């Protein structure tokens, strides 16, 4: 599942469900394994920042720069921050097959 922040702690989303029109999640703290159950999805810390778009083939992914998901995406796809910055500055257009630009 995905990583988020809850009360300034890095947590993994274990389960998402909907009850009476409201979404809830079960979370697990990445560091100490503590489990948080029945947390409203609105209570998760929202990432603040600039949206970056990664396009490859028919896949379009939008991530907040600096967020946990953004860092995980870079690591998972073996993308280098310096080359991503070059794409954002317009020096190059692609990095490892991804077209990278601001939203």
Tell me about this structure:
With 103 residues, this protein is of the alpha+beta class. 17% of the residues lie in helices and 47% in strands. The chain has 2 helices and 8 strands; from the N terminus they run ββββββααββ. Strands 1-2-3-4 form a 4-stranded antiparallel beta sheet, with no helix packed on it. The chain has a 4-stranded antiparallel beta sheet with strand order 6-5-8-7. A hairpin with a 2-residue loop joins β2 and β3. It is elongated, with a radius of gyration of 16 Å. It starts with a strand and ends with a strand. The mean pLDDT is 88.
Would you summarize the structure shown here?
The protein has 103 residues and is α+β, with helices and mostly antiparallel strands. The protein has helices at residues 68-76, 81-89, and strands spanning 3-6, 9-19, 22-29, 35-40, 51-56, 59-64, 94-95, 98-102.
Topology:
Elements: E1 3-6, E2 9-19, E3 22-29, E4 35-40, E5 51-56, E6 59-64, H1 68-76, H2 81-89, E7 94-95, E8 98-102
């Amino acid at each position: 599942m995905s990583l988020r922040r809850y009360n300034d702690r890095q947590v993994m989303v274990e389960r998402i469900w909907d009850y009476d029109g409201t979404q809830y999640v079960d979370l697990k703290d990445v560091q100490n394994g503590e489990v948080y159950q029945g947390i409203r999805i609105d209570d998760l810390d929202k990432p603040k920042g600039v949206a970056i778009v990664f396009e490859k083939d028919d896949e379009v992914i939008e991530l907040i720069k600096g967020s946990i998901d953004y860092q995980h995406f870079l690591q998972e796809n073996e993308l280098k921050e310096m080359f991503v910055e070059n794409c954002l500055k317009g020096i190059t257009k692609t990095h490892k097959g991804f077209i990278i630009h601001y939203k």
